[in-house]
Amino acid sequence: MEELPDGLIDRIPALREATHLSVQRIGGLTNKNYLVKTEGNEYVLRLGGPNASYLGINRENELEALNVASRAGIGPEVIEYLLPEGHLLTRVIAGKHWTPEEYRTQGKIAEVVHLLKRLHSLPAISADACPFKRVRRYVDDCVRLDVPLPTRMDRLLETVCSIELDQQEDESYRPVFTHNDLVCVNMVQSDSSREITLLDFEFAGMGDPYHDLASLVYCHDNIGPIPSELEELLIESYFGNSTAKHRLRLAGMKFMLIFFFSMWGFLQYGLTKQGLVEAVDWFDYLDYARYLIDNDVEDRAREYDGMKSRIE
What's the first-to-final CA gap in the chain, in angstroms? Predict the structure, then answer.
């Protein structure tokens, strides 16, 4: 059995009272995750990582978001949540993650947009999920940690300001309950009910709906964005139509999403170099961040600038 922190099992009744207990590590970058089996039950145990506070993750806010989403049938069943560490025990969902081929269909896009509308209609929670504040905080933290950032950072931050102005000028904008990390591994479709459950609410808060839409474009971020015709369907399914303004706002948030991913990589690299968190043998944060800057971030900036110039 994998070794867990001393006294942790005793703090979780569902595990403390189990007569047969097995624990198996199942990966994770920000946190350590384990598959825990007892007699007749399977759980996922997530140990809150020491880098959570550096990444702007507030465990009390996460618990609030989890409770709201779970009551709505969108989030996982929470068995135990331990504060202040943020250790989380949820029941395993018998289901699957969609492959890129499964996801990239009109039916699945319509299905996931329906779920997104349910998510965005949930009651307001305390956390602020402003993508602009978050990415600027990461940049500032990287500077403090002496992380080697790209020389074109000033130009990228100018693009951030332009996209932020687009949001401010959007009269229809209002913050909604957003997930902000809708990658494929955070969506599980039940084998029995076929319902989709969202996992990992660490970055959830009141934010821009276009950020979640952008996440769906990059659901399988290691493969790349969905085809343009499915992106158009995504917009039409969510808003009822697709206008130049819709496409510009989505293009802006696609940039923000990928820019955030890159800054997350830079910050994680800085934290590991300072010895503040453990390095991960199988993942190079700096290579990941630099690749995104040199490829996806630049592509998204060009796409956004092109749309902006045509509208103006």
Answer: 61
Whether 272 and 285 have beta carbons less than 8 Å apart is answered as yes
**Predicted pLDDT at 1:** 55
Rounded distance between C-alpha atoms, residue 216 and residue 113, angstroms: 9
pLDDT of amino acid 194: 92
* In the chain, domain spans: 9-92, 96-311
User: Smallest Cα–Cα separation from 290: which of 154, 137, 151, 150?
Assistant: 150
- Say how far apart CA 261 and CA 280 lie, in whole Å: 17
- The pLDDT, as a whole number, for residue 50 is 79
- DSSP for 129-197, written as a single string: --HHHHHHHHHHHHHHTT----TTHHHHHHHHHHHHHHHHH-TT---EEE-S---GGGEEEETTT--EE
Q: For 96-311, which CATH superfamily applies?
A: Aminoglycoside phosphotransferase (APH), C-terminal lobe (3.90.1200.10)
pLDDT at 17: 87
pLDDT at res. 169: 96
- Residue 2 pLDDT: 62
C-beta of residue 110 within 8 angstroms of C-beta of residue 235: no
Q: Which residue has the tokens 């996440």?
A: 215
pLDDT in tens, 51-70: 888 899 999 999 999 999 99
Mapped onto helix, strand or coil, the DSSP state of residue 33 is: strand
Query: Which stretches of the chain drop beneath a pLDDT of 50?
Result: none
Q: Is 40 helix (H, G, I), strand (E, B) or coil?
A: coil
Could you tell me which residues are beta bridge partners of residue 173?
Answer: none
Q: With beta carbons less than 8 A apart as the criterion, state whether 140 and 230 touch.
A: no
CATH architecture of 9-92: 2-Layer Sandwich (3.30)
Are the beta carbons of 221 and 129 closer than 8 angstroms? no
